[in-house]
Each structure stands twice: as C-alpha cells, then as structure tokens.
Amino acid sequence: MVPEKHLAQAERILKQTAQSITNNLNAIALASETNARGAASGVTEIKQASQFVAERTLQTKHSLGTLNNFMEHSDSIAHLAQQSYILSLNASVEAARDSTSKQSRGFAVIAQNMRTLAENVRDLSQQMSKLTAIGRESSSTTLNHTEKVQQSIQTVSELFYDFSKRAQSQNHAVNHIMSAAEESNTYNSENTAIA
Question: What digits encode the pLDDT tens for the residues 52-84?
C-alpha cells in the first residue's frame, strides 16, 4: 500500500502539472484567438486596399480611353490643318496667276495667312499628339502596375485568409485539449480522493 504522504505529494504534483498545462493551453488559446482576430482584421484591410486599387485601375483605364479619344481628335485636327495648308497653296497659285490686280494681291495675303495658320495648327496638333502619347504611355504603365498590385493584394489576402482559418483551427484544437486536460484533472482528483 502506498503511504498517504506519497499520494498527497503525487496529487499535488499532478494538480500543479495539470494547472501548468491548463495555463499554457489558455495562453496558447488566447494567442491563437488574437492571431485569428488579427488575421481577420488583416483580411478586411487587404480587401479595402484591393477595392482602392481596383477603383484606381478603373480610373486609369478611363483616362487611357480618354487619351486615345484625344489622340484621334488630334489626328483629325492635323488632317484639317493639312487640308487648309493645301487650300492656301492653291489660293497662292491662283493669286500668282494674276498678280497685277489689287484683288489678287489681297487674295495672296489671305492665302499666306491661311498657310501660316495651317502651319501653326499642324505644329500644335503635333505637340498635342506627342503629349497625348506620353500620357497614354504613362497611363499604360500605371495600369500595368496597378493590375500587378491588385494581383499581389489578392495573393496576400488569400494568405491572410488561410492564416485566419488555421488560427481558428488551432484555437479549436487547443480548446479541445483544454477540455481533455480538465477532464483528466477531474478524473485524477477523483481517483486520488478514492485512494
């Protein structure tokens, strides 16, 4: 027969061990719960960031469409400037045929002014085309970058979601272990009391 002194000491050690295990499991459960909440919060933040990037992507696509439309109008302006230039040359030729009349000289001045205006419009149209091309290239680059960022955010969001699920699963497992430890502690206390 085991002396009572040894049983009491064994019971005390068993209770201390069970309490230590319970305390450690409580700490693990709390950490798991905190991690799960943090991961869930991270998923929410990432979703908001993803939404923001998606909105910027749509705005960039819209800007790119506007720049393309602007480029088409700029090309039309250049075409009109070219036609005006040709008309001014034709008017100059007609004015030169009869250079003696006062009307012809006035027509020549108007033709020269039309030519100058057509050249200025053409130059301005070319500058607009260059600026539009730069803007389009910049918008395309920005669009590519925002799409890559959006893909990265999606990947990180999935990782956070997986982490959150694992933390919840870990928390569930810890709670299960804690229940088993409490049952074991109760069983051991009952057995010690019987002995």
Answer: 988 988 998 999 899 889 888 888 998 998 999
Question: Which segments within the chain are labelled E, that is strand?
Answer: none
Rg of the chain taking only CA atoms, in angstroms: 41
* Cα–Cα distance measured from residue 113 to residue 99, given in angstroms and rounded to the nearest whole number: 17
Taking the C-alpha atoms of residue 108 and residue 133, their distance in angstroms, rounded to an integer, is 37
- pTM for this one? 0.60
Q: What are phi and psi of 2, to 5 degrees?
A: -85, 130
Distance between CA 134 and CA 159 in Å, rounded?
38
Widest CA span in the chain: 145
- The pLDDT of residue 2 is 56
pLDDT of 148: 92
Q: Going from the N-terminus, what domains does the chain have, and what CATH number goes with each?
A: 4-194 (1.10.287.950)
Q: How far is CA 159 from CA 25, 121, 156, in A?
A: 26, 56, 5
